[in-house]
């Protein structure tokens, strides 16, 4: 099984390609607010994924060392999601709110899809 860091690196590459497609959509279509929301949401989602990976590595080290286990940063990731929504609300004329929320979920959907493909290929 791949390590958490390798999975994150692979997902990050996929997300950058998706972000490039969103930027093209923002620049070449009349749906700039929708693509702006997808871009903002995906960037915040990538940040949330980075926080999760970092906290999971700390969690793994704490369990291995037998020390006290800290949280996985749920509050910080929730606050980050709320910040993405706040940005979308603050700039509502330029950023579509629903697209921002969908963008927040892009990294997690990719993670789920990537893991399903991995397990189908290797089992």
Strand content: under 5%
Unreliable sequence segments: none
Q: Topology as H/E string?
A: HHHH
Name the assembly state: single chain
Separation of termini?
A: 11 Å
Treating each run of at least 4 consecutive H or I residues as one helix, how many helices?
A: 4
| Share in helix | over 70%
Instruction: Give the overall silhouette.
Output: flat
Transmembrane segments: 12-28, 34-53, 74-92, 98-118
Subcellular location: Cell membrane
Membrane topology: Multi-pass membrane protein
GO cellular component, one term: plasma membrane
Overview of this protein structure:
- Helix 1 packs across helix 4.
- The protein is flat.
- It is built from four helices and no strands.
- Helix content is 83%, strand content 0%.
- With 123 residues, it is an all-alpha fold.
- It has one domain (4-122).
Q: How are the SSEs placed, and which strands pair?
A:
Layout: H1 4-28, H2 32-65, H3 74-90, H4 97-122
Helix pairs in contact: 1-2, 1-4, 2-3, 2-4, 3-4
Summarize the structure in short.
By secondary structure, the chain is mainly α.
List keywords for this structure.
123 residues, mainly alpha, 0% strand, flat, ATP_synth_I, cell membrane, transmembrane helix, ATP synthase subunit I, ATP_synth_I_Bacilli
